[in-house]
Here is the input.
Amino acid sequence: MLCGLFVQLLFFGFFLVIALVFWKRMRNSPKMYSTPQYGINHWSKLLKLLLLAAPIIIFRCLFRVAEFSQGHDGYLVSHEVFMYLFDAAPMLFVQIMFHFVYAADVFGAGSMGKLGDSESSIGLNARH
Here is the structure.
């Protein structure tokens, strides 16, 4: 578990660095304002939300590292309040944040696909 958490922290940190570099470059580029807006919100609003959610998720992951490093009978595992404060509450807050900026509202409803589209596109209905 600890190895998996460290890999998660590594890749999420890498994603965060790439997102920050992308945001910095796009802020300084004249193309930022010429990119099309397909949905209700602009892509920069979703990126800002990701950049706000990332430290919360990293904090939660660091808590999980501390929790699992103490073992099955550690202090953090044996006291339920820490799970609610440092695991469930941050994830609830991130979920609530993403409720206000939905990906389909940024990329347009048609870009997300529908449940039945993949079946018809690969020919599953042709068997009948």
In short: Confidence is low (pLDDT under 50) at residues 118-128. The radius of gyration is 20 Å. Residues 54 and 88 are 15 Å apart (CA to CA). Residues 2-108 form one domain.
